[in-house]
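Possible race condition, two jobs.
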Amino acid sequence: MAKTALHRPSGPGTAPLLTSLTELLLAWLPRQRWFAGKGRPVTDLTLVSTTELYPGCLHLLVRTEHLGPPAHGAPGAPPAEDCYQLLLGVQETLPPRLAHAVIGRASEGPLANLVVYDAFHDPRAAGLLLERLRHPGTAGPLRFERDSRVPVPAGLTPRLLDAEQSNSSLVYGDSYILKVFRRVQPGINPDLEVPWALARQGCTRVPAPAAWFRTSRPQEATLGVLQPFLREATDGWTLALDSLASGREFTDEAYELGQATAEVHVALASAFPVDTPSPRQNERLADAMSARLDAAVRSVPDLRPHAPGLRSAFDALATLDGVVRPAQRIHGDFHLGQVLRAGRQWSVIDFEGEPARPLAERRRLQSPVRDVAGMLRSFDYAARSRHPWRPEWAQRCREAFCAGYAAESEWDPREEPDLLRAYETDRAVYEVLYEARHRPDWLPVPMAAVRRLAEHL
């Protein structure tokens, strides 16, 4: 185990540590799935805070500065900034079971000749995090808190989920799951705020937070949330693909998912303020959607031929007369991967919203139509993930979902087709931009929707 004087909360004292870490992190960070600066050169790296949780284990908040996306970054524009949460282990040698977690061997500074690795892969570090959450307190700028009414047993065996995602998740004994927010933004994260509020409303569709931790430096920010792990549940994406593979219908599940979605929306409208619609709300929404389309076209030239047809959906929204949905808190990134089913019970998870969006935007009141459109797009994603493509399967799921939503809510999304088309078009444009940046092989899926929506079919 390394024996180094590492307990430096933040400030000038972190400079020697950067001497050891900068070269390693500049090479390692851009390769991580959760790194948001893909394709943007990192121009600077600073330590926001450093806390030693135990000898040889460091909790870091690291700020990266990098140039904006080349496609629409103006020359001389100030570099963008991101803040990332890291848990680093430091040892002289690593056991073979941690070889995959190695970041590199430091060549200079206080960690010279020591191996630095991602300690979220280390059962000892993961176990320590759980103990910190079980016994609330502080460590430097870190604050560990919990709901005292929820018992969290000691000694639960940790494992790091290896699924591709924008955060890191640790499962403890198949009883609890700790989501660690890799990209940290000031303020309370919706994935803590919303489930906590819904639990107070008695909504059983969302697992309630059992514990969480945050930082007070340089600003208040949520770092991670511990919730019950629904081990008997299967995510909606897997269930949908199983349905397609077996030729089985998915309409009953889609109908009940629509009911569950409406139930959560109703609970959210009770737990948080609801914004009274303004006369020009649809016009402002259409302007924002058009601006996002313009930005996406600059980044993904394949969108350009379809832009006029897509814009017609936003023009139709701007001129809608009398169709204005109240804005409220919503999920914000709703799709089949964000829902779990055990028996006939659907649960909704991951209220973080789109991680690439600013936190203030993700906490903003929005129309529930956005969530509905996200799920409708997800049915299409599932149908197009297999060959041959089965558009009729997706259409039946879409109809069943909307019918289930209408049965539990005061309105039917199908009765407002122009409103729904505008939100679905906005979602498809976002999907094109995401796939072009992160999963180019998937780009044909949203592009097919773009062609359909542009032609208004």
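Job #2 (started ~2 s after job #1):
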Amino acid sequence: MASRPTAEFRAEAVRMALTTGLPRKQVAADLGIGFSTLSRWIQQDRRNPEKPSAQSDLEHEIAELRRENRLLREERDVLKKGHPVLRGAKQMRFAFITKNRDTLPINRLCQIMDVSPRGYRAFCNRPISAGQRKDMVVLAHIRDQFEQSLGSYGRPRMTEELKELGLDVGHRRVGRLMKENGIKVRRNKKFKATTDSNHSFNIAPNLLNRDFSAERPNQKWAGDISYVWTQEGWLYLAVILDLHSRRVIGWAVSSRMKRDLAIRALKMAIALRRPPKGCIHHTDRGSQYCSHDYQKLLRQHGFQVSMSGTGNCYDNAAVETFFKTIKAELLWQRSWPTRRSAELAIFEYVNGFYNPRRRHSALGWESPLAFERKAA
């Protein structure tokens, strides 16, 4: 025959049921007693309350503090993951509860997310709407295009890309889905000076005068030099853009920033485009572009030479924008163990993404190659 529970055991069982916040069935199971027995003890305790002693008051206060501390820890852990969700619509909060329902009881999660358990149950039982189905389809395409764009497409470019795929979407829907799912462009910034204007070469006037528009291909070209850090040292990148379409028509890389770097990029552009005489060629006043060899090559092909003002990056803003783009979308996204690895990545970016696919606001959200085909 089992022994009867002592008064101390009964009191402890009642205290656990009333102060720990655990379900009474769980308390009864943990203590090895029946749920009905525990319920009867609680009722008896409420009908015959004893005058609490100072010690029991202290124990009760400690138990309450422990319970509050546990609840706060639960809220903290949930809010770490759900902080952005709390500012979103109820649908987002319901989805968050579904995703995390194994960590805490549903009612507790509903309390933290400031929604009702009844509303959550209705959400779970409600069939998916046509709008939600479309959101799921659009989101799948957004994730795919975001990966293909190397994480570079924000809301405007993403919207144009999805429309090109035949999806009937607007900026608001795309922006909302990207925000709700944490899809955002990351930017970093580094700096290294690459222009050496302290030389004795001749300086050309600024024929471009910040007019970066061109009615036809091979009317205005612009060039510049930038850099990327690798574990082997600096890798320098020289490019030539056709300002009509912002297409990269010539580029070269080198471990040293010498005049042959700029000359190789120019020769590549000339071989690709065979420009007519009179094409404006605009750069900064760097020694590479003012050198006798570089200027001789320009004269041989009939270019009109144009140069920026002293220390004024806005005079060559189109190329500066390209460098900002390739650094933010590619070069700053990871470290480069060798110069060769960075060179291959640049080649793939320029020829596989920037020229054929990347959309430009200045081109009406067309890619350089698509814009040239339409203009032809």
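The chain has a mean pLDDT of 82.
Logs attached separately.
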